[in-house]
Specification:
The chain is built from six helices and 15 strands. By secondary structure, the protein is α/β, with parallel strands linked by helices. It has a three-stranded mixed sheet with strand order 2-1-15, covered by helices on one side. Strands 3-4-5 form a three-stranded mixed sheet, with helices on one face. The structure holds glycine.
């Protein structure tokens, strides 16, 4: 099934402070030069599709600010500015809001002071918006987002992020209008009934976070068995290095907002 098309993406340069970014397990500081080279490859891959990529300068005050996806949900009807659940990331959303207002006529925001939601927990498919409760996304954040998107005609379904997993989309990606790449542990929850699901290969769970940008799939390098499954299923894949962002629990989806402004 042909999926919704994007014309734009927003990315943000990795700041020097990214070496201090949040991480669940410390496996060493990311190499900033390698991270920036991978980031440049990522932006080039998006541009190769013909997309307009708004490349924002580094925000040194926010070590995790390269992971722009968490700051907003971009839909055909408008954008919603999130309230990140990590205190050190709360200010990133306010930094993103003016850039969205420059492109969208309708920009709303999560306002409840007790409500938290990061868009890494949101998977938008052709028929619904799945939001995984997590350590960063609470019931109040999900409920407030549900009210906003209902106004635009979208159904939102609350689901759950597996324990110990940062975001819902750490474990899944939408590859086309009906196909989801997911870890077996997330699919086992039953949240993808009705979709065609391709599992990551055993031991390659960290490859579940990929992105589709129109007909191209950006996929993290270093996961050959899952890569070969996707190629065999007919996807056009571009492998992008992710070794340094992975040290901060970041992946392909985290590095951009993808949308068609309205
Ligand atoms: N380091 C990305 C995050 O924890 O949000």
């Amino acid at each position: 099934m042909r999926a919704y098309r994007f014309t734009h993406a927003i990315t943000c340069q990795p700041p020097q402070t990214a070496v201090n970014g949040l991480r669940a397990v410390d496996t060493g500081a990311p190499d900033l030069a390698v991270m920036r080279a991978h980031h440049a490859d990522y932006v080039a891959a998006l541009k190769s599709t013909g997309a307009t990529v708004v490349e924002l300068p580094a925000l040194e005050a926010f070590p995790d600010s390269l992971f722009v996806e968490d700051t907003a949900l971009c839909l055909p009807q408008g954008a919603v500015v999130m309230r990140p659940g990590a205190p050190s990331r709360l200010g990133e959303a306010a930094e993103m809001a003016p850039h969205l207002r420059a492109l969208y006529s309708d920009v709303r925001q999560i306002e409840g002071v007790e409500n938290f939601i990061e868009a890494g927990d949101i998977l938008t498919t052709e028929t619904e918006i799945l939001v995984g409760r997590s350590a960063r996304t609470n019931a109040g954040g999900v409920a407030e987002l549900a009210r906003i998107v209902a106004d635009w005609g979208h159904n939102l379904r609350e689901v759950f992020t597996p324990p110990g997993v940062l975001h819902f989309k750490t474990d899944c990606s939408l590859l086309d209008g009906e196909t989801i790449l997911a870890t077996e542990r997330l699919d086992a929850s039953g949240c993808f009934k009705g979709y065609r699901v391709i599992h990551t290969a055993p031991g390659e769970e960290a490859s579940a976070n990929a992105i589709r940008f129109n007909d191209l799939v950006l996929f993290p390098a270093g996961f050959p068995r899952t890569r070969d499954k996707l190629i065999a299923a007919g996807f056009d894949l571009r492998e992008i290095g992710n070794s340094e962002c992975a040290k901060l629990d970041g992946g392909m989806s985290c590095l951009s907002l993808r949308f068609t402004p309205s």
